[in-house]
Structures are given as structure tokens and as C-alpha cells.
Amino acid sequence: MPRPTRLATAAIAVTTAFTFVLSGCGASSEATTAPETLRVALLPDENASEVIKNNEPLKEHLEKELGLDVELVVTTDYSSMIEAMARGRIDLGYFGPLSYVLAQEKADIEPFAALQEVEGEDPTYQAVFIANADSGIEDLADVAGKTVAWGDQASTSSHLIPKAMLAEEADLRVDQGDYEEQHVGSHDAVALAVQNANADAGGMSLPIYERMVEEGLIDSETVVKVQESDPYANYPWTMQSNLPEDLKEKLRAAFLELDDPEVLEPFGAAGFAEVADSDYDQVRDLAPLLDIDLEDYQ
């Protein structure tokens, strides 16, 4: 069950900006029957139509393995996804580490699988701090007095981790006026803001940065890497704890035994590995560092 910590305040505040239309009561902790249609939410960290299109193979895979209809959903923002999970309007959710931690404060959910980029290795990933090549930023200390673009406020790799990097390694904090910040919503929007010089620097997922470079969406000579972060537990797949146990076992198997390259390609992964709630304590530990409270999410 959700634990009452300081992050509960942040989770409540995150949902203030909630714009995804919901109805009905919150999810019950009692076991339920299997839904006729499994509602699967994908992170709104890139263009929604592209996210849904790219994950059609996942939908087909789940329908085959589970014997259920599957509906893919991309909410308007992270806060909407958190609220939808808390209200029981989503059965399965693909969260970022921070948005999972915030959602877990409000909803009875459990993580069960995370991306494994290299078979046999821990399911981790990294963020990257980027800058426009003409900004004069060569290291984190150079960000002083500059403008930084973040993604969603509840994003781990396009907000929390790179912001922590600035605070821990360069002693730069936005609440001290050391730099200016703007939230542009998604990882791809961060990269484009930096490329178009609408921001001097930004933070985003390293895998998304590398994919955008590979696809020619951004120029690596214009949008340069300043510093990569340490590894963090990768994006978790989570499910409502009150789903029937037989369905939960099928869901675990559908992800943990998945080896279809077409399904895995949008994730840039070799497969999925098992994870537990404690794997995200590293993200929880960043909350006091950044003084996460109501004002951070208004």
C-alpha cells in the first residue's frame, strides 16, 4: 500500500495540473475480475500519436498472450497519468522512475518489469545534460546565468536527475537564482528547444537523445552532450495490485519472456527484467536534495 512520506505532498501537487478526463471512484484494493479491455498507459514523454503508433506491436503481443483486448492510452501529461492510475482508470502503466514514485504514493500499484538495454545487465538507464554548441557551456558549472529547458515536472531524466546533477556537482540551484528554467513538456521538445537556441541547455533521457541523433531529428554538433548521469533504475512497467493473480502472472510472463525484436524496437531494449519497489529508493533519495514540495509541482 502507498506509504505516507514527503513525496505524498508532491504527488498531490503533481495532479493539480490534471487535464485527462476521468470519472468514477478510486481503485479498490480488493481483487477484481479481469477487465474486458486492458487499459495500458504509455508515458507522454514524446509525441502521443507516434508513441501509440510505435507500440502497436506491443498491443498485438499483449492481446495474443493475455487473450484480452488492449487499449493503448497516452495521457496529456505525467500528472494525468498518475491521477488516472490512482482512480483505477488504467490497469497497466509505463512510468518514469520519478512519476512511478509519485504515483505509488497515491495508488496501490506494483512495478514488475523494466527495460534491459543489454541482455544480462541490470535494467538501468541514464540521463544526459545537453547544451547548444554556441551557448559557451562546456561543463555543468558553465550553466550559471543560462536558461535550461526541462521536460515534464514529474520526469526523472528530463528534470529530476539533471537538476540534481546541477545541484550536487556544480552547486547551482534555480531557487537560488543561479539559472533560469522552463518546462517544455517532453524529451524531444527539450532537444529541439536547445537545438533552436530557445534554451541554452537542457536535460533528457540519454537513449532518447541518441535515437534522435540517429534519426536525424537533431544535430549532435549543435546539441552537444555536456555530461551523462550515473545509472538509475529504468522505467518500470506497473500494474494495479488488485488485478486477478492469474492475470498478473500472465502479465509478468508477457514482459519478462518477451524476445520479439519488433515489439522491443521502440524501447531500444534487449528485453525486460524483473524489478521491485526498492529499486527506486535511489530516486526517492533525490527528493530532499531538490526540496520537492508543493511549489515544485504547481
Automatic annotation (TrEMBL):
Gene3D superfamilies attached to this UniProt entry: Periplasmic binding protein-like II
Record's GO cellular component terms: ATP-binding cassette (ABC) transporter complex
Keywords from the named record: Signal
Family as reported in the entry's similarity comment: Belongs to the phosphate/phosphite/phosphonate binding protein family.
Species of origin: Sediminivirga luteola
Pfam family, one: Phosphonate-bd
Gene: phnD
Superkingdom of source: Bacteria
Name of protein: Putative selenate ABC transporter substrate-binding protein
Signal peptide location: 1-23
GO biological process terms, semicolon-separated: transmembrane transport
InterPro entries for this protein: PhnD
Cell inner membrane found in the keyword field: no
